[in-house]
Design a protein that fits this description.
With about 350 residues, this protein is of the alpha/beta class. It is built from 13 helices and eleven strands. A six-stranded mixed β-sheet has the order 3-8-7-4-5-6, sandwiched between helices. The chain has a five-stranded parallel β-sheet with strand order 2-1-9-10-11, with helices on both faces. Helix 5 packs parallel to helix 7, helix 8 packs parallel to helix 9 and helix 10 packs across helix 11.
Length: about 350
């Protein structure tokens, strides 16, 4: 099922790239006919599958105010993600074998809530749920999805994009659950602090040992800020966290050539932006451009084009680039969203570049 899901994902990405290509042609035609300046903005991520990416929609529909400039969104995927549903299926299988059809969610389900800090983890979870639909019951020894639909637990999510993806699962398969975080928790630090308050309020009066642990679904490479914060809380505020690795991440083998080709194609632009969405993506960008030595220090000139600027999706990526790579980004989005990225970029161009 995981392989089929990956194949379908690749087909969706291909269709999305074709649609974005047509959109790009239309935008460039408008720019050329109306004498507008194009500002390429390179998003180092896969575009959303199945619908126009929110970053495309927002940047296309919001040209720079009081200016003859329009954004030209481009996508250069830097990472490849491989979902692993086996750990989720194993957990659900054990859950079913232990408690069978007499599920009472608050009593029998071993976890008091689930934590998601990336869309990739949500996708892996969704794929696992797809495999326990009626035609696939045999994979879990007869576990019907209806058992899970009785669960009434919080689902914690970092940032609005992860929360939106999780909401689709909640509406479809876990309607008794509720989502916390999202827009109000754009970083792991913010989410961890929110969980401490929310989950301890849910278990008011319970000691640390009486509270059920939370299940953290994550990738093979991840920061431990959320579980570390929860498990290091003092006294009865402490929350146990179990970690379940549900996907692996690696650099796209074509990224170096893809980013080089895209930068060459946009080299005549007076201003262009590159938006990085993760520490790994940022480091891969510097390596692909030859700006990073083996010791993770910026090697040679900071930029080959003085009009190229770097924005990060949030403080985690900004801090990693600054402390580990010795590379300060130009902009850090206040919120991990299209609106947050655009707000940061336009503030920089007004204050640093005197762009109207």
């Amino acid at each position: 099922m995981g392989q089929l899901h990956d194949e379908e994902s690749k087909e969706n990405h291909a269709l999305e790239r074709n649609a974005l290509g047509l959109l790009h042609i239309c935008v460039m035609a408008i720019i050329e006919n109306d004498s507008m300046e194009s500002i390429p903005i390179l998003f180092l991520k896969n575009p959303s599958a199945g619908h126009t990416d929110p970053y495309t929609s927002h940047f296309i529909s919001n040209p720079l105010p009081s200016s003859r400039s329009a954004y030209e969104p481009l996508y250069v995927p830097v990472l490849e993600h491989t979902s692993s549903t086996a750990p989720i299926l194993d957990m659900l299988s054990h859950f079913n074998q232990s408690f069978g059809p007499n599920l009472v969610s608050k009593t029998h389900f071993p976890y008091g809530g689930l934590i998601f800090t990336s869309q990739r983890a949500v996708e892996a979870f969704a794929s696992a749920l797809d495999s326990i639909r009626p035609d696939n019951f045999h994979e879990l020894g007869g576990t019907p999805l209806e058992y899970l639909r009785q669960l009434a637990i919080p689902l914690y999510a970092v940032g609005p994009a992860t929360a939106r993806s999780l909401e689709e699962i909640r509406k479809k398969d876990m309607a008794c659950c509720w989502i916390r975080g999202g827009e109000q928790a754009g970083t792991g630090e913010l989410l961890a602090n929110m969980i401490l308050e929310d989950y301890n309020d849910l278990w008011k009066g319970a000691s640390a040992n009486q509270k059920k642990p939370l299940l953290f679904l994550t990738g093979a490479k991840h920061r431990d800020i959320v579980p570390a914060t929860l498990m290091s809380a003092s006294g009865d505020q402490k929350i146990e966290v179990k970690t379940l690795v549900v996907y692996a991440t690696s650099e796209s083998p074509s990224f170096a050539s893809d980013i080089t080709n895209t930068l060459n194609a946009t080299s005549t632009a007076r201003i262009r932006w590159i938006v990085i969405f993760s520490p790994t993506g940022g480091e891969s960008l510097l390596r692909a451009l030859g700006w990073l030595s083996d010791s993770n220090n910026v090697n040679g000139p900071r930029r080959t084009n003085p009009g190229t600027f770097i924005a990060s999706i949030g403080p985690t990526t900004r801090d990693y680039m600054r402390t580990t790579c010795n590379f300060p980004v130009d902009v850090c989005a206040e919120t991990p969203s299209p609106e947050g990225v655009m707000k940061g970029i336009e503030k920089f161009m007004r204050t640093q570049l005197q762009q109207p």
